[in-house]
Design brief:
It is built from 14 helices and 16 strands. By secondary structure, the chain is α/β, with parallel strands linked by helices. The strands form four sheets. It has a seven-stranded parallel sheet with strand order 10-9-11-8-7-12-13, sandwiched between helices. Strand 1 and strand 2 form a beta hairpin. Helix 3 runs antiparallel to helix 7. It is globular and about 75 Å long.
Length: 425
């Protein structure tokens, strides 16, 4: 066990500026770490989380108690930690520790006729700030990915999960110090007001990359107001399209999983599009499996409302990330119409076609312009762990630098290193 002094929570609140200064000062210590150092640091952080499990659970119980009546049951589940979830958190970090380290890798090189060697080398980004909401596991995931990729993290979680995040960060810092690393490789912003978020958005000279991870409001605020480089991550209006050539038994299982296995996450399905040729047979199956058995509220287009019971879809229901047991349903006349609907309403996260027809599959995967496009599989697989990345920093829905689940490779940039011997131009 760690020494008792390391288990104590610090009551000294640092300003956001002081935390940014600490992070910037720690950047050089991150840059000089070796691959072996970075692996050892992440493993030490994972061990410390398990060693401090009871304290983390105690602080999480406090967060849950404070949040009752203020957020939905689905969001409370998102906030909740259990011994198994903490164990999974540590295992995810250990997976990250074992991944191939990209830092220092030569991406390409070119040797000129005069002997000048030009190399393109993978390097850390620097100080990475992450603004996220009420998911405590993001605290550990983000810190592990940053340390493994030679970056310094500045974590700014939501107020609902602050005590949980603070306990997790305190544990990780103790693990780093125990192994001789700078504890400021991982930092937690202690001000949970909008002021601190705005300060991170404008922390030029301190923050090299800002990643917002949360709902539409948070992401839009960062994209619109940040003066530091910002990656747009995943609001998830994810679609399941059931083609006329679909295996309907397969389709209802995939839709059930995509909607109900964990509706509060960004890769959960929010919209089901159904080809008109199978609607009369498929929609009653959906009603039984989701509405009757799982209590999912169906919001129906005019045509689908003639087949099954549910609420009439409102003006914004096909443009809403519900994050709840709610599913918008629409009947379409063709695969082309499904693709057109997705292009108009999707957030570019994850979409699925359920079809046994290869031509329909090919058309869908070619024309749907989202970060993850599936054939006969649930959208719930859009996740760093499921993609073999250990965990992810977020799901990027943009196209510059990173797209889809962001692992350690997406947490690096590159620079050119040129080796000469008195060369002049």
């Amino acid at each position: 066990m760690l020494a008792p002094a390391l288990l104590e929570r610090s009551d000294i609140m640092l300003s956001t500026k002081e935390i940014l200064v600490n992070a910037k000062n720690a950047k050089n210590s991150a840059l000089v770490t070796s691959k072996e150092d970075r692996k050892r640091a992440v493993l030490a952080m994972a061990d410390a989380i398990l060693e401090n499990k009871e304290q983390i659970l105690e602080q999480n119980r406090m967060d849950l108690e404070n949040a009752k009546g203020k957020i939905s049951e689905v969001m409370l589940d998102r906030l909740r930690l259990t011994p198994d979830r903490i164990k999974a958190m540590a295992e995810s970090m250990r997976t990250v520790a074992e991944l191939s380290d990209p830092v220092g890798k030569t991406i390409s090189e070119y040797k000129r006729e005069d002997g000048l060697l030009i190399k393109k080398v993978c390097v850390p980004i620097g100080v990475v700030a992450i603004i996220y909401e009420s998911r405590p596991n993001v605290t550990a995931d983000a810190a592990a990915l940053c340390v493994k990729s030679g970056n310094v993290s500045v974590l700014r979680g939501g107020k609902e999960a602050f005590n949980s995040a603070k306990a997790i960060v305190d544990a990780m810092k103790s693990g780093l110090e125990k192994e001789g690393f700078d504890k400021n490789l991982v930092n937690l912003v202690e001000d949970t007001t909008r002021d601190s978020a705005n300060e991170l958005m404008r922390a030029n000279g301190y923050v090299d990359l800002l990643i917002p991870r949360g709902g539409k409001g948070l992401i839009d605020a960062c994209v619109q107001n940040a003066t530091v480089p910002c990656i747009q991550t995943g609001t998830g209006i994810c679609h399941i399209y059931v083609d006329k050539f679909a295996d309907l038994e397969k389709a209802v299982k995939i839709l059930d999983n995509a909607k109900t296995s964990r509706p509060s996450v960004c890769n959960a399905a929010e919209v089901c599009l159904v080809h008109r040729d199978v609607a009369n047979e498929f929609l009653p199956m959906v009603y039984k499996a989701l509405a009757e058995e799982k209590n999912v509220e169906l919001r129906l287009c005019e045509k689908s409302a003639q087949i099954i019971k549910g609420k009439t879809a409102g003006e914004n229901d096909f443009d809403t990330e519900f994050l709840d047991y709610i599913l918008a349903v629409k009947i379409v006349d063709s695969t082309e119409e499904a693709i057109e609907h997705i292009s108009l309403h999707s957030t570019g996260h994850s979409e699925t076609i359920i079809s046994e027809n290869t031509e329909a599959q090919k058309l869908f995967t070619s024309l749907v312009d989202s970060a993850a496009v599936y054939v006969n599989a649930s959208t719930r697989f859009t996740d760093g762990g499921e993609f073999g990345l250990g965990c992810e920093m977020g799901i990027s829905t943009q196209k510059m630098h990173a797209r889809g689940p962001m692992g350690i490779e997406e947490m690096t940039a590159y620079k050119y290193v040129i080796e000469g011997n008195g060369h002049i131009r």
